Target: 3-phenylpropionate/trans-cinnamate dioxygenase ferredoxin subunit
Amino acid sequence: MSSWITVCGLDDIEQEGARRFDHEGRTYAVFRSPDDEVFCTDGLCTHEAVHLADGLVMDYEVECPKHAGAFDYRTGAAKRLPPCVNLKTYPAKVESGAVLIAISQ
Model:
Protein backbone atom coordinates (compact mmCIF):
# COMPACT_ATOMS: atom_id res chain seq x y z
CA MET A 1 0.00 0.00 0.00
CA SER A 2 1.26 3.47 -0.88
CA SER A 3 0.68 6.70 0.97
CA TRP A 4 1.30 10.22 -0.31
CA ILE A 5 3.91 12.20 1.60
CA THR A 6 4.56 15.93 1.23
CA VAL A 7 8.17 16.63 0.26
CA CYS A 8 8.30 20.41 -0.21
CA GLY A 9 6.74 23.23 -2.20
CA LEU A 10 7.12 23.15 -5.97
CA ASP A 11 8.98 26.46 -5.79
CA ASP A 12 11.56 24.83 -3.49
CA ILE A 13 12.90 22.91 -6.52
CA GLU A 14 14.31 24.88 -9.43
CA GLN A 15 13.25 23.96 -12.95
CA GLU A 16 15.69 21.28 -14.11
CA GLY A 17 16.68 20.85 -10.48
CA ALA A 18 16.56 18.21 -7.75
CA ARG A 19 15.96 17.99 -4.04
CA ARG A 20 16.99 15.35 -1.55
CA PHE A 21 14.23 13.87 0.60
CA ASP A 22 14.87 11.46 3.48
CA HIS A 23 12.05 9.46 5.03
CA GLU A 24 12.06 6.52 7.46
CA GLY A 25 15.69 5.60 6.85
CA ARG A 26 15.52 5.85 3.04
CA THR A 27 16.66 8.61 0.74
CA TYR A 28 15.04 9.85 -2.45
CA ALA A 29 15.72 12.39 -5.18
CA VAL A 30 12.82 14.52 -6.38
CA PHE A 31 13.19 16.25 -9.75
CA ARG A 32 11.41 19.16 -11.43
CA SER A 33 11.38 18.91 -15.20
CA PRO A 34 11.66 21.80 -17.68
CA ASP A 35 7.84 21.72 -18.03
CA ASP A 36 7.22 21.73 -14.24
CA GLU A 37 6.37 18.04 -13.86
CA VAL A 38 7.81 16.28 -10.81
CA PHE A 39 9.44 12.86 -10.62
CA CYS A 40 10.93 10.79 -7.82
CA THR A 41 13.65 8.12 -7.80
CA ASP A 42 15.80 6.39 -5.25
CA GLY A 43 18.30 8.96 -4.10
CA LEU A 44 21.54 7.05 -4.56
CA CYS A 45 23.33 6.24 -7.81
CA THR A 46 23.25 2.50 -8.46
CA HIS A 47 26.97 2.54 -9.26
CA GLU A 48 28.65 4.27 -6.28
CA ALA A 49 25.85 5.22 -3.85
CA VAL A 50 26.40 8.99 -4.31
CA HIS A 51 23.29 11.15 -3.86
CA LEU A 52 21.79 12.15 -7.19
CA ALA A 53 20.21 15.33 -5.83
CA ASP A 54 23.78 16.71 -5.92
CA GLY A 55 24.10 15.91 -9.63
CA LEU A 56 23.61 18.02 -12.73
CA VAL A 57 20.01 17.98 -14.01
CA MET A 58 19.46 18.83 -17.68
CA ASP A 59 16.28 18.21 -19.59
CA TYR A 60 15.11 14.80 -18.32
CA GLU A 61 18.44 13.41 -17.15
CA VAL A 62 20.44 13.58 -13.98
CA GLU A 63 24.19 13.13 -14.07
CA CYS A 64 25.83 11.44 -11.10
CA PRO A 65 28.28 13.87 -9.47
CA LYS A 66 30.96 11.21 -8.95
CA HIS A 67 31.53 9.46 -12.30
CA ALA A 68 29.20 11.34 -14.70
CA GLY A 69 26.91 8.37 -15.31
CA ALA A 70 23.40 9.48 -16.23
CA PHE A 71 19.81 8.39 -15.63
CA ASP A 72 16.47 9.36 -17.15
CA TYR A 73 14.71 10.45 -13.96
CA ARG A 74 11.27 9.90 -15.52
CA THR A 75 11.83 6.16 -15.94
CA GLY A 76 14.91 5.47 -13.81
CA ALA A 77 16.72 4.07 -16.87
CA ALA A 78 20.53 4.13 -16.74
CA LYS A 79 21.52 6.14 -19.84
CA ARG A 80 25.30 6.52 -19.62
CA LEU A 81 27.93 4.27 -18.02
CA PRO A 82 29.25 3.48 -15.50
CA PRO A 83 25.79 2.77 -13.95
CA CYS A 84 24.11 -0.20 -15.60
CA VAL A 85 21.35 -0.80 -13.03
CA ASN A 86 18.21 1.31 -13.33
CA LEU A 87 16.85 3.42 -10.48
CA LYS A 88 13.56 2.62 -8.80
CA THR A 89 10.94 5.32 -9.42
CA TYR A 90 7.97 6.43 -7.34
CA PRO A 91 4.75 8.28 -8.24
CA ALA A 92 4.99 12.04 -7.75
CA LYS A 93 2.52 14.88 -8.19
CA VAL A 94 1.86 18.53 -7.38
CA GLU A 95 -1.23 19.50 -5.40
CA SER A 96 -1.94 23.07 -4.31
CA GLY A 97 1.70 24.01 -4.92
CA ALA A 98 3.09 21.12 -2.83
CA VAL A 99 5.18 18.22 -4.16
CA LEU A 100 3.98 14.81 -2.98
CA ILE A 101 5.45 11.35 -3.54
CA ALA A 102 3.90 7.92 -3.01
CA ILE A 103 6.03 5.52 -1.05
CA SER A 104 5.09 1.90 -0.53
CA GLN A 105 4.69 1.01 3.13
